[in-house]
Write a structure and sequence with these properties.
Helix 2 packs across helix 3. The chain is built from three helices and no strands. By secondary structure, the chain is mostly helical. The radius of gyration is 19 Å and the shape is elongated. About 50% of the residues lie in helices and about 0% in strands. About 0% of the residues are buried.
Length: about 80
């Protein structure tokens, strides 16, 4: 997506909440995550579970060390559903 003023909305809301919390005495740590990664991570997790249902449960020898290729395969899989 192209950057536009709408991307600032959550930052402005977060800053406003931080100022209110500081005003009432809370110790606030500001952390801002710009971007929406939920879809991508959901796609990767679902693809991992579909492709390797026992991943992390046993020594199945699965190697996802090449994350670029893993992402490309996951994206191709979910583009089929689009």
């Amino acid at each position: 997506k192209e950057m536009h003023v709408g991307h600032l909305r959550s930052t402005i809301i977060g800053e406003s909440v931080c100022r209110i919390m500081e005003f009432v005495g809370a110790n606030v740590k500001r952390v801002n995550h710009v971007g929406d990664w939920g879809t991508q991570f959901g796609m990767l997790i679902t693809f991992l579970k579909e492709s390797f249902p026992n991943f992390g449960k046993s020594d199945d020898g699965v190697n996802i060390g090449d994350l670029t290729q893993f992402y490309k395969r996951a994206k191709a899989r979910f583009d089929e559903d689009a």
